[in-house]
Amino acid sequence: MKILFIGGIKSGKSRLAEAYILEQTKQKPYYLATTEFIDDEMRDRITAHQQRRQDGFITLEEPIELLNVLKKHPTPVLIECVSMWLNNMLYHQHTEGRILQELTDVLLLPSDMVFVQNEVGFGVIPDNPLARKYVDISGKAAQLLGEKCDQVFFCCAGLKLRLK
Amino acid sequence: MKILFIGGIKSGKSRLAEAYILEQTKQKPYYLATTEFIDDEMRDRITAHQQRRQDGFITLEEPIELLNVLKKHPTPVLIECVSMWLNNMLYHQHTEGRILQELTDVLLLPSDMVFVQNEVGFGVIPDNPLARKYVDISGKAAQLLGEKCDQVFFCCAGLKLRLK
Amino acid sequence: MKILFIGGIKSGKSRLAEAYILEQTKQKPYYLATTEFIDDEMRDRITAHQQRRQDGFITLEEPIELLNVLKKHPTPVLIECVSMWLNNMLYHQHTEGRILQELTDVLLLPSDMVFVQNEVGFGVIPDNPLARKYVDISGKAAQLLGEKCDQVFFCCAGLKLRLK
Predict the structure, then answer these.
(1) Which CATH number applies to A2-77+95-126+143-162?
(2) A58, B79, C148, C157: which has the fewest C-beta neighbours closer than 10 Å?
(3) What pLDDT is recorded for position A18?
(4) Region A80-84 average pLDDT
(5) In the structure, what pLDDT confidence band is assigned to residue C35 with cuts at 50, 70 and 90?
(6) Which residues are named in the active-site annotation (chains A, B, C) (predicted)?
(7) Confidence label for C47 from pLDDT (cuts 50, 70 and 90)
(8) Would you say A61 is a known binding-site residue?
């Protein structure tokens, strides 16, 4: 099973995704953290996430090599989050084609995965070309996930709504 | 009953919330306006809201002391809106902890309340640290409301979708 | 029948709307392209849309005179998109009243129409007054469409959710 939790900033998507994977699986799931660049604000967010998770998960850290890591650590895994991975890939000058291909390959793996993604496309189109590029690839990645996942949940106000 | 109407700018959330509270209650409901800072643009918005409400409501105005006012004016009340109150609280240097505690206390009051809130987290993460802080606390407040309210409606294009 | 597909940037709304109108109609539908200002980035988007449509549609181009064109080309028609038309109308200094009146008149035509619109109001309120004005009129147009359309679909991650 592949499952997507998509929602805005602080929509509760991570908490909902964590609760979901813990409910659904008997074995201790993996938690794949994709964060690469860490400033103080980010560190506070990570700490808050870690405190919430406690030791319910086995934590992996990989900002770039999503496919390689997921091949080795089979199942089930929470990918937290797709948005940060997209950001890292763009920062390291990977092309859109390469990024979407890697995501396609990840989705062909047989293992159980829960993806968390920020929805970023419901505001005004950004002035900044880089932000526009990010919004675009984020939407394309979301469409790919939306197509290939078995279940998709839209998150808002800490609640989830089934899209698929 | 506690009810939340959450949606984007001009999503119709205020109109939907007003119609809802008027349908549900026989007595004339209170309308708690939380606006503090008023420029010409804001004045136009307020006038538009007032014209629509006409005299269906008893208007109260309180930008900060949400708990105190709600304790005194029991029920039912439309809080318009949570987002402006959060903004005022941050402007007056209240901490996130204090703000979320006050909202928690409000939600423990037994009276019937309908909350209106702007969803602001579905765009790109703002460059501006203050805007980021606002988006964060707004999402945390929405999660608190989403957890404690009996009903939650997501608003878009003047329509509502039940989240809870 | 009037139908609205509303969603964020790259939410899949155009693709969903195209698939929907092709499924629902036996005759070849019109495709009303409202784009006026074309830079390289826009050209790439248009080309991508055209390649996807191939020759399933009869393409019309009209950035401003929505009502006049729709009167002449009766049915069924996909309007791609309302957001670009709003943008063009504001650029050409049409007032909000005039713009919403034209949209009202369009919605009174008896022909079958599928509208595509960007939802832009779920981020932070923009600093820029023009962007704020755009977000406002976009929301008002969406509420008008939401009220008058027979069906409304909210789009996210390439999936659609029925709002009405």
Answers:
(1) 3.40.50.300
(2) A58
(3) 95
(4) 96
(5) confident
(6) 49
(7) confident
(8) yes
Residue whose pair of structure tokens reads 């998960």 in the numeric block: A57
* Contact between A14 and A160 (Cβ < 8 Å): no
Residues 6+ apart with CB under 8 A from C128: none
Architecture of domain B2-119+126-162: 3-Layer(aba) Sandwich (3.40)
DSSP summary character for residue A93 = T
Q: Indicate the DSSP class of residue B9.
A: T
Provide ipTM, 2 decimals.
0.93
Neighbouring chains of C at 3+ CB pairs within 8 Å? A, B
Quote the CA–CA distance of A92 and A105 in Å, as a whole number: 19
CA–CA distance from A133 to each of A56, A126, A129, A139, C82 (Å)? 36, 9, 6, 10, 22
Which residues from A are below 8 Å from B123, CB to CB?
A: 8, 120-124
Residue A54 pLDDT greater than 70, yes or no: no
Q: Which residues of B touch A134 (CB under 8 A)?
A: 124
User: To which residue do tokens 């993806």 refer?
Assistant: A115
List, as one string, the DSSP characters of B28-49.
PPEEEE------HHHHHHHHHH
The pLDDT of residue B43 = 75
Three-state secondary structure string covering chain C: CEEEEEECCCCCHHHHHHHHHHHHCCCCCEEEECCCCCCHHHHHHHHHHHHHHCCCCEEEECCCCHHHHHHHCCCCEEEECHHHHHHHHHHCCCCHHHHHHHHHHHHHCCCCEEEEEECCCCCCCCCCHHHHHHHHHHHHHHHHHHHHCCEEEEEECCEEEECC
**Residue pLDDT, tens place only, B77-94:** 999 999 999 999 999 999
